[in-house]
């Protein structure tokens, strides 16, 4: 477990260093993710390896790690005050438009390029 | 009487300590997981949402300031970084599904970034928001650290940008999968891509529970969208503001 976590933190540090040196506009962990992806493609470690087990363990509880920042939403609710209408409409409206544009563009281009892959998801809950 | 008072004081003191606040956070999360199991994965029973409500109510009742709560729970928030790195793991497992999808993926991400930014700013302006608020809303589709950084460079309100990004992530976790069903987006790659693009890591956390392919593409989409939004925003800002 600790060995796997050490690897993940190592990739995060590498990501932070690259972001700092190249002055990239993305967070260090995102670059670390892309580096780890390349590493996994090249080395293809077995499923029992420490990095895969530690990483999968963390991902099972990904939602937990958002809680400290998320409580900020509760703390800020009162501050929104008079601006709640433009905020909620802009948030939900642009969220919906983004979802439609990304989803339909991806599916449409797939069909256009002749490689559709329509696997049926289970009924929406 | 004094004995009971002393005991109450001690209890409050422990509850307000970093240990107590960590306990409330973990307890709220476990309550959320329990609720998720009990309701057969009802969309509203997202552990992150339940934990936020529990911790939010707790710090209000205990009269703890949010910055103090945030500092006390740094131990939990820290793991977001390594967990983000770990999103490479489902993507690795699903890598052969990238074949024939690279062009649709990149085009969709860029169009999505432009749509998210432009529509948020114009909708807010139409309803009478001021400029600082528009600049803060513009970045909400990006993952939290990127949203904060970009809002800062535009001149918006960085702590509010984090709040917006988190909130829209939770909206995605709750409503995303059902809505994609309504929109008849059935390809699992496209579903993950769409939710990751508008609801970043929180959206990806829901998708990971639904299906590994959807989770993998949501994680990738979160990373690439952060990049696309960072690149596109300064250009769009010339025209929008």
TrEMBL record, chain A:
GO CC list: plasma membrane
Membrane topology: Multi-pass membrane protein
A Pfam family matched in the record: LrgA
UniProt subcellular location: Cell membrane
Source taxon at top rank: Bacteria
Spans through the membrane: 25-42, 62-79, 85-107
Keywords: Cell membrane, Membrane, Transmembrane, Transmembrane helix
Record-given protein name: CidA/LrgA family protein
Organism: Nocardioides immobilis
Highest classification ranks of the organism: Bacteria, Bacillati, Actinomycetota, Actinomycetes, Propionibacteriales
From TrEMBL, chain B:
A Pfam match: LrgB
Principal cellular location given in the protein's record: membrane
UniProt membrane topology term: Multi-pass membrane protein
Keywords: Membrane, Transmembrane, Transmembrane helix
Entries under InterPro entries matching the protein: CidB/LrgB (IPR007300)
UniProt GO cellular component terms: membrane
Subcellular location: Membrane
Top-level taxon in the UniProt lineage: Bacteria
Transmembrane segment boundaries: 44-64, 76-93, 105-127, 160-183, 216-240
PANTHER family assigned: PLASTIDAL GLYCOLATE_GLYCERATE TRANSLOCATOR 1, CHLOROPLASTIC, PUTATIVE SEROTONIN TRANSPORTER
UniProt protein name: LrgB family protein
């Amino acid at each position: 477990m600790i060995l796997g976590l050490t690897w993940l933190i190592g990739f995060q540090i590498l990501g932070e260093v690259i972001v700092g040196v190249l002055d990239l506009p993305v967070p260090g962990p995102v670059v670390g993710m892309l580096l780890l992806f390349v590493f996994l493609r090249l080395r293809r470690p077995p499923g029992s390896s420490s990095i895969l087990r530690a990483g999968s363990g963390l991902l099972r509880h990904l939602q937990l790690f958002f809680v400290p920042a998320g409580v900020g939403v509760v703390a800020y609710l009162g501050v929104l005050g008079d601006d709640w209408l433009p905020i909620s409409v802009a948030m939900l409206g642009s969220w919906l438009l983004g979802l439609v544009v990304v989803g339909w563009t991806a599916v449409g281009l797939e069909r256009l390029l002749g490689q559709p892959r329509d696997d049926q998801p289970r009924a929406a809950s | 009487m004094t004995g009971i008072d002393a005991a109450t004081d001690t209890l409050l003191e422990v509850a307000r300590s970093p240990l107590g606040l960590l306990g409330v956070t973990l307890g709220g999360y476990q309550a959320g997981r329990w609720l998720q199991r009990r309701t057969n994965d009802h969309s509203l029973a997202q552990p992150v949402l339940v934990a936020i409500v529990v911790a939010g109510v707790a710090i209000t009742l205990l009269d703890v300031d949010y910055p103090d709560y945030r500092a006390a729970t740094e131990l939990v928030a820290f793991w977001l970084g390594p967990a983000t790195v770990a999103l490479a793991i489902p993507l690795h497992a699903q890598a052969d599904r990238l074949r024939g999808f690279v062009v649709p993926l990149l085009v969709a991400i860029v169009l999505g970034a432009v749509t998210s930014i432009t529509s948020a700013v114009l909708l807010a302006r139409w309803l009478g928001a001021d400029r600082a608020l528009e600049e803060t809303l513009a970045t909400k589709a990006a993952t939290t650290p990127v949203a904060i950084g970009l809002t800062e460079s535009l001149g918006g309100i960085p702590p509010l940008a984090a709040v917006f990004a988190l909130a829209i992530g939770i909206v995605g976790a709750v409503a995303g999968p059902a809505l994609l069903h309504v929109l008849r987006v059935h390809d699992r790659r496209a579903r993950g891509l769409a939710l990751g693009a508008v609801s970043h890591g929180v959206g990806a956390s829901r998708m990971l529970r639904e299906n590994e392919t959807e989770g993998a593409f949501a994680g990738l989409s979160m990373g690439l969208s952060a990049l696309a939004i960072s690149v596109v925003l300064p250009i769009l800002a010339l025209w929008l503001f």
